[in-house]
Amino acid sequence: MAETVKGPASYFPSIEKKYGRPVAEWQELIRSSPLTRHMELVAWLKSEHGMGHGHANALVAHTLAEARGK
């Protein structure tokens, strides 16, 4: 039986469907951004890429957690 995805990653299928890019591509954009603070990155995704707050927050949270090794 497949394990249910929880946390920020649970948003990933809807992010890919709504914005037409794979999550890996969004994560690379986040990593390559000169911004480093969580809410700065969220605001950037919202303003520059038209992303909703929940989707932007999930991507940033997951990407920054990976960078911290969590």
TrEMBL record:
So which domain of life are we looking at? Bacteria
One Pfam annotation reads DUF4287
Question: Sorted alphabetically, which InterPro entries does this protein's record hold?
Answer: DUF4287
Q: What is this protein called?
A: DUF4287 domain-containing protein
